[in-house]
Amino acid sequence: MPLFRSPETVIASLIVLAIILLVSFPIHEFSHALAAYELGDSTAKLFGRLTLNPIAHFDPVGGLMLAVSILFAGIGLGWAKPTPVNVRNLRGGRSGEAIVAAAGPISNLVLALVVALPLRYINTNNIDLGILTVILQSFVFINLALAFFNLLPIPPLDGAPVLFTFLDPQTAWRLRPILQQYGFFILLAALLFPIFGGQTLLGLVFADLIEPLYGLLVGR
Fold first, then answer.
1. Between the CA of residue 32 and those of 38, 39, 116, 186, what are the distances in Å?
2. Of 95, 112, 110, 86, nearest to 33 (Cα)?
3. Which range, of 12-21, 68-77, 146-155, 189-198, averages the lowest pLDDT?
4. pLDDT at 112 > cutoff 90
5. Separation CA 189–CA 168 (nearest Å)
6. Can you give the pLDDT at residue 30?
7. Sign of CA dihedral 24, 28, 34, 35
8. Which residue of 112, 137, 173, 206 lies most exposed, with the fewest beta carbons within 10 A?
């Protein structure tokens, strides 16, 4: 949904941007905080992050990145302020850490599913709601993107702690410091260079996972 395609698209993009900043990001970070709190860590609560208040979770750079990516590319790449978690306080060890990490992307997936249900009905019955349909479509797609992109097993994304849970302790112990030190550069290279069969990592995730799932959910 690139900028300047039509006035309707520009308005829809701005509305979707506001919804992501006011709903999707706060719920994502609140889910991290709530999961951590339920598993015994009060760090996020002490920092005022166990809340749905968008201001508490807003990151200026991540918000700007989201705005640029939505308006110019329609893909919604951005981030909120990371939720502080002290993994030493969590019950369940590595499993607890993985649950906290996965809670955020799962919340975005739930949001996408909730909005996809009425959208599928709208599409199936060829109901024309104008700009509202565009907004709903963008909301579903971007929340799917937030969910699955964040689940990539590369730090600083949420998928890294999930990956470590499925590895044996010795392998995880050896791999974790390497990925934590170089994860950002690995992720950047994967996003910029077509090293996956001629596609970038981002292109692969969108083309082979997010777009087919989007079509399945909304009936297109």
1. 10, 11, 23, 24
2. 86
3. 68-77
4. yes
5. 27
6. 98
7. positive
8. 173
Give the whole-angstrom CA distance, residue 68 versus residue 73. Answer: 8
Task: Please list the helix, strand and coil fractions of the chain in percent, rounded to the nearest 5, in that order.
Answer: 70, 0, 30
Work out the average pLDDT over 19-26.
94
- Based on the number of CB atoms within 10 Å of its own CB, is 172 exposed (0-12), middle (13-18) or buried (19 or more)? middle
| Annotated active-site residue in 29, 38, 97, 211 | 29
Q: Which residue has the tokens 């979707």?
A: 16
Active site residue 29: yes
Q: What is the mean pLDDT of residues 97-120?
A: 96
Q: Say what the pLDDT of residue 138 is.
A: 86
State the DSSP H helix or E strand holding residue 62, giving kind and residue range, or none if neither: helix 60-72
Alpha-carbon distance of 4 to 13, in angstroms, equals 10
How far apart CA 122 and CA 89 sit, in angstroms, is 46
